[in-house]
């Protein structure tokens, strides 16, 4: 049997993992709704695959309008089976500049929460669906270089756990996947120390396979699952000295 054709929305698809993942879904024969702030990049993607992509240009941090854009996009596609939240960002912030932290809170906490809630309730209304979001291994513990980023990713990880538990408790056919990367070769990877950096195309392919299997957590690459396990177990006295 071939791949079952599905309708997918990737929120934040103009670059990095989101764009690569949109390409994988399109190559596999799915219809993909792509969103982002940069209209020119979305138009470029649509021109390359007009039969595969539907685009909507908006800023997810504009919480007064973003849901309207998503509802319009979902309706234009005739309904959606899977929603992937790839919109996110982060910066190192050694100086603890609050403006930097505020931007991450607006994007990784406030916008993420609104998008997740909308997606979950959308699937609840349809009776089934799959919500996924890109978090980070950085969310396992606090970081002196990027305290706001690691904290916001911890929030996302726990929020997705809560939605997964809610779907199970209420016996809903809603699958929730935490896509948890280590270092991927994208402009987002700003840490001064990097290792096991995955090419973005390899990361997107692994994410696609994990989503097809409806896994609860997809570590990218798989070896980062071991790192995450060790990092969680790291004694507090040792973590403090890193």
Describe the structure.
The protein starts with 6 loop residues before the first strand and ends with a helix. The mean pLDDT is 92. Helices cover 47% and strands 17% of the residues. It has helices at residues 16-27, 39-48, 66-76, 98-126, 147-169, 200-212, 223-233, 236-239, and strands at 7-11, 31-36, 53-57, 82-85, 128-134, 173-181, 217-220. It has eight helices and seven strands. Helix 6 links the parallel strand 6 and strand 7 (217-220). It is globular. By secondary structure, it is α/β, with parallel strands linked by helices. Strands 3-2-1-4-5-6-7 form a seven-stranded parallel sheet, sandwiched between helices. The protein has one domain: NAD(P)-binding Rossmann-like Domain (Rossmann fold, 3-Layer(aba) Sandwich). The longest helix is centred in the middle third of the chain and has 29 residues, at 98-126.
Number of helices: 8
CATH class type? Alpha Beta
Mean pLDDT: 92
- Distance N to C terminus: 50 Å
- The main sheet orders its strands as 3-2-1-4-5-6-7
> Regions with pLDDT < 50 over 5+ consecutive residues?
none
CATH superfamily: NAD(P)-binding Rossmann-like Domain
Largest sheet: 7 strands, parallel
The dominant shape is: globular
Instruction: List SSEs in N-to-C order.
Output: EHEHEHEHEHEHEHH
Radius of gyration: 17 Å
The percent range for helix content is 40-55%
Strand content bin: 15-25%
How many independent structural domains?
Answer: 1
CATH topology heading: Rossmann fold
Corresponding CATH architecture: 3-Layer(aba) Sandwich
Q: How many strand segments?
A: 7
Which structural class best describes the helix and strand composition? alpha/beta
